[in-house]
Specification:
The structure holds two protein chains of two kinds. Chain A is of the alpha/beta class. Chain A has eleven helices and ten strands. In chain A, the strands form three sheets. In chain A, strands 5-4-3-6-7-10 form a six-stranded mixed beta sheet, with helices on both faces. Chain A has a two-stranded antiparallel sheet with strand order 1-2. In chain A, strand 3, helix 5 and strand 4 form a beta-alpha-beta unit. In chain A, helix 3 crosses helix 5 and helix 7 packs parallel to helix 8. Chain A starts with 5 loop residues before the first helix and ends in a 5-residue tail after the last helix. The N terminus of chain A is likely disordered. An eight-stranded mixed beta sheet of chain B has the order 19-18-20-21-27-26-25-23, sandwiched between helices. The radius of gyration of chain B is 39 Å and the shape is extended. The chains are: A alpha/beta, B alpha/beta. At the A-B interface, strand 8, strand 9 and helix 10 of A face strand 2 of B.
């Protein structure tokens, strides 16, 4: 898979585009440039298998030819290209409103959701979206016609408030009765085990889950040497400290957290993608498409 | 440098505000927002970093501005240095010479005079010196002068007095002398035995800056001393074969201090100028009592002295006292003819209990009081009866001359008959069953008219309210007011009080209960509050006995006469003595009201003061014994450093300039506040500049690793 031109996916450049639709199209077009696989090729009705008739099955689906040969009822099943429901869940808590570079984590997540939604829509899937803090905030139900509404809602969303990731994920899972793909875009300030259990729940509903873990370089590296008072973006708690003294220990703690998250999410059967806000969006798009291709066909 | 408004220096406390703000700065100002402290809170953080001033220059600038502002408002004034720099001013010394009783110690006084002379002789020719004698008061013996000879000469006139010691008045006098005269350097020299008892009140004294205080302790090395501290003297009646005779029993309390061995001395009791009894006693260290054999006492005032053999301090070896001619208060109790014996039983028994003075009651029946009875009575108590017309003139004269009359009003005076008993059976009282017909006649003698009898049996009796406890009649109850108001009165006369009388207490229904009227030198007390046991439960109350006793003492005009007084007291001679003349122990004649304020006689010397009327001859009307304060017998000195501790120093407002400073000069001295305010303004401008420029003006959004304040 060829890489997209970095210039079109650089977050700093994207931050200057205020129209999310334009941004998404720019990203997707730039990203798709040079990719020669069509997701629609050969995706019409294809025979899959036969199975024994069970009372209640539609009589029209009985393969009479097989009955003629074997004198038994078999049902003919096909592999069908069905429109998948893709729900994007964007963490809009206060911790997402942080950015040491050109964009905040929330902005980056918004770009990501817009781009993925555009991409998804053009693949014929239904797109929906929800932003969440402690609970769901703005909800756009999945539909093939909801892309513009999704982009509009996304453009108006503001970060703030305390995050309760586990409860929010549970509510996201109940957004649609149909199984589909749930894309979580969050900074994952949650205990890995608790978060993993909420992913487990999504998986039990039959959803495919992709977790985009947004990380800012500032929170990753804890730069600076001067004493400063740190304020928790969600709780407002103040903590005076010297980052230069604590950096190594902090980074070790954070790395362990990331590893635990990845292990637990992957263990739950979901995809875990860590994206840094100083990196272009293509890594995230690649990860999504890989996952999408693997799960395009549903029965 | 001084301050015109030093209280405003309290504004310096305001510097705590910027310090506190700077210490809290890092917590409150521009905190760095971070997504989550989830991991940072798990790390050990050195809390010492939490409270630290990070911006010292700005803090110092702000503190400086506040300090200068407080100083400016305190109005600094510069003058002391200018005074000190004036080399033309001479040195000033004030010599304070203690002449209290304790300085009469035989080893002390010569040393004191020598020390004072030496202090004066050590001065230079241009130095100024003043001399102050002091005991419990101060006397300027020599004003500030350069004439050392004159200052030395006044020392010859000094002699110890029988007075107490107080350093405070002397120091104040010296302070004023130094403020009144120019000086470059000043010193106060205290020549004294530095008795500890004299330091009371010294703590509040502030001496001008530049004034030093030097104490020369001339106290005796040996502080052993015996002193007669108090005397107990009373008349006793001794019965012999030839009959009863009045004797005087005297006990003396002696205090001995720091004796190396018990002292054997002769103690003499002097009565009316003659040695009456002499005993040889052994005095141990501490207190001891000398009991003299009772001696015959004349009926008149007895002036006595207890004298010990002299020791080094003679002043306290003699103790003077006076036993009044007869210490019993004579009460004439006038009762109506129909009075039952039990009516006055409670009162007579209660008055008979008291001692010092004893109260002797003479019972008179009827309403006629003869002149002889009045002459021998200090108080006349009219028990529910009015004097006959023939006795009224005598009673009026009696009261005008200082006598006291108490009228206890009951059912008879109220004009209500009780049972079959006829009110005022003698008829001379004018009492009748008609209140209105009797009122005019009674009103002429009493300060009230009776309008009937109040019966409070239905509501369990009335109580006293509105009692004027500040009145001497109620002096025993000032600290126990409930004791008096708990008595209940079931029947009492209703009275309309005339305007020339004072109502001292009322019943709880508003009717007057006790009324007083001054008549010449005496007084008339009218009680509607019953004193018998049938109209009230007052006789059953604890307050009954002290009230009756105080009633008699107050009405008689007699207080409990002390056997002696101390020097520095004032003696208020009786107003009943016309043209009073007082002969002092030094045979000086004083005329109260002419030689002294009102009728107060200052008791300056130890000895006997005698009061005469007109001329100082014949028998004295009253005699008062005066002794030196007992504290003078305690020769324990105070450490000179301790004396200095109590005295503070302050900037002198009146200083060396002989001529008053001109308004311009005063203005120049006080100009500092303008300069300070200017500096404050500059500091605030600088503070504004510093706080809004450079790195302080930039909100620190993100602590960059390479952040450097100089760069931002």
């Amino acid at each position: 898979m060829a890489s997209a031109p970095a210039g079109f996916l650089d977050p700093a450049l994207l931050a200057r585009i205020s129209d999310l639709a334009l941004l998404a199209r720019t990203v997707v077009d730039g990203f798709m440039h040079g990719q020669h696989r069509s997701l629609r090729k050969g995706s019409s009705l294809d025979f899959a298998e036969h199975r024994s008739y069970q009372p209640g099955d539609d009589l029209r689906r009985i393969d009479w030819r097989v009955y003629g040969r074997t004198d038994r009822f078999y049902i003919k099943e096909y592999e069908a290209d069905t429109n998948a429901s893709v729900v994007f869940a964007l963490d809009a808590s206060g911790s997402m409103d942080f950015g040491s570079g050109a964009v905040t984590k929330f902005d980056y997540g918004r770009f990501l959701v817009a781009s993925l939604a555009w991409l998804t829509q053009h693949q014929g899937d239904r797109v929906g979206m929800a932003t969440f803090t402690g609970e769901l905030a703005d909800v756009v139900p999945p539909s093939v016609r909801h892309l513009q509404l999704l982009l509009f809602t996304l453009g108006r969303a503001k970060p703030g408030g305390k995050s309760r990731l586990v409860e929010a994920v549970d509510q996201v899972g109940r957004l649609t009765m149909r199984t589909g793909i749930v894309v979580l875009v969050t900074d994952c300030y949650e205990e890995p085990e608790a978060f993993g259990r909420s992913i487990d729940a999504l998986r039990m509903f039959g959803h495919d889950v992709i977790v985009f873990h947004i990380v800012d370089p500032g929170e990753r590296d804890l730069p600076g040497d001067l004493p400063a008072t740190y304020e928790d973006a969600e709780s407002g708690t103040l903590l005076p400290l010297r980052p230069g003294v604590l950096r190594d220990k902090y980074k070790a703690l954070l790395a362990a957290h990331h590893e635990a998250l990845q292990a637990r999410v992957s263990g739950a059967g979901a995809d875990y993608v860590r994206v840094d806000t100083d990196k272009p969006l293509d890594a995230a798009l690649h990860a999504y498409l890989d996952s999408r291709l693997a799960r395009t066909r549903v029965r | 440098m001084g301050f015109l408004a030093p209280a405003l220096l309290a504004g310096l406390l305001a510097i705590a505000v910027p310090i506190a703000l700077h210490l809290r700065h890092r917590d409150k100002d521009r905190p760095f927002k971070f997504p989550s402290l989830m991991f940072l809170e798990q790390l050990p953080i050195r809390t010492a970093q939490r409270r630290r001033v990070t911006d010292w220059p700005l803090l110092l600038l702000r503190v400086l501005a506040l300090v200068l502002l407080a100083l400016a408002f305190a109005r600094p004034v510069f003058n002391a240095k200018a005074v000190a720099a004036d080399g033309d001013k001479s040195r000033a010394v004030v010599v304070l010479l203690d002449r209290s009783a304790s300085m009469g110690h035989k080893d002390v006084w010569p040393a004191a005079i020598d020390s004072a002379r030496a202090a004066i002789a050590s001065l230079g020719p241009k130095d100024r010196v003043g001399v102050v004698f002091f005991d419990d008061a101060s006397e300027v013996a020599q004003r500030m002068t350069e004439d050392k000879g004159a200052a030395t000469a006044v020392l010859a006139a000094a002699k110890p007095m029988a007075r107490g010691t107080r350093f405070a008045p002397a120091l104040r006098t010296a302070r004023q002398m130094l403020l009144d005269a120019p000086y470059a350097a000043a010193e106060i020299v205290v020549v004294s035995d530095l008795q500890r008892s004299g330091t009371a009140g010294i703590a509040g004294i502030d001496l001008p800056t530049g004034v030093t205080l030097r104490a020369i302790n001339v106290g005796a090395l040996s502080r052993s001393n015996s002193a007669v501290r108090a005397v107990e003297a009373k008349r006793v009646t001794e019965t012999t074969e030839s009959g009863a005779r009045s004797m005087l029993a005297v006990k003396a309390r002696v205090v001995s201090r720091e004796l190396t061995a018990p002292r054997i001395v002769q103690a003499t009791l002097v009565v009316n100028g003659r040695d009456a009894n002499t005993q040889t006693v052994t005095l141990p260290t501490g207190e001891s009592t000398i009991t003299f054999t009772p001696v015959l006492a004349p009926e008149t005032d007895v002036t006595g002295t207890v004298r010990l053999a002299s020791d080094a301090l003679e002043t306290d070896d003699s103790f003077r006292f006076v036993v009044p001619r007869d210490d019993a208060v004579k009460v004439a109790l006038v009762v109506p003819d129909d009075t039952r014996a039990d009516e006055t039983l409670f009162m007579e028994r209660a008055l008979g209990i008291g001692r010092a003075p004893e109260i002797a009651i003479t019972r008179v029946r009827g309403a006629t009081i003869d002149a002889a009875t009045l002459r021998t009575s200090n108080v006349v108590v009219l028990w529910d009866v009015l004097p006959s017309q023939s006795s009224r003139a005598a009673l009026d004269a009696y009261m005008t001359g200082g006598g006291g009359v108490t009228v206890v009003a009951g059912r008879r005076l109220a004009g209500v008959a009780s049972g079959t008993a006829a009110p005022g059976a003698s008829g001379s009282t004018g009492a009748s069953t008609s209140a209105t017909s009797a009122a005019p006649e009674r009103g002429a003698f009493l300060p009230a008219k009776f309008t009937g009898l109040a019966d409070r049996l239905a509501d369990r009796g009335g109580t006293l309210t509105g009692v004027r406890f500040e009145h001497p009649l109620f002096a025993p109850f000032r600290d126990a007011q409930d004791a008096l108001v708990s008595a209940r009165f079931f029947r009492y006369p209703r009275m309309d009080v005339t305007s020339d009388a004072d109502i001292l207490a009322r019943f709880d229904d508003g009717l007057p209960a006790m009324v007083e009227k001054r008549v010449g030198g005496g007084r008339l007390l009218l009680l509607a509050a019953s004193l018998d046991g049938t109209s009230s439960d007052f006789p059953l109350q604890p307050a009954y006995l002290p009230f009756l006793r105080q009633m008699v003492m107050h009405t008689s005009g007699r207080d409990a006469t002390p056997l002696w007084r101390t020097t520095a007291d004032n003696w208020l001679v009786s107003e009943t003595v016309t043209d009073p003349v007082v002969r002092s122990p030094t045979d000086e004649l004083l005329r109260p009201g002419k030689d002294s304020l009102a009728r107060a006689v200052p008791l300056a010397d130890a000895g006997h003061y005698a009061l005469f009327s007109g001329t100082a001859t014949g028998e004295a009307r009253q005699t008062v014994a005066v002794n030196a304060p007992p504290g003078e017998s305690d020769l324990t000195p105070v450490d000179p450093k301790e004396l200095l501790l109590g005295v503070g120093t302050t900037e002198a407002s009146a200083t060396a300039d002989a001529a008053p400073p001109t308004p311009d000069a005063l203005e120049r001295r006080q100009n500092a506040w303008r300069i300070l305010l200017l500096i404050v303004a500059l500091a605030l401008v600088g503070e504004t500049f510093m706080a809004t420029r450079g790195w302080r003006a930039v909100a620190r959004r993100y602590p960059s690793a390479s952040s450097d304040r100089s760069q931002t």
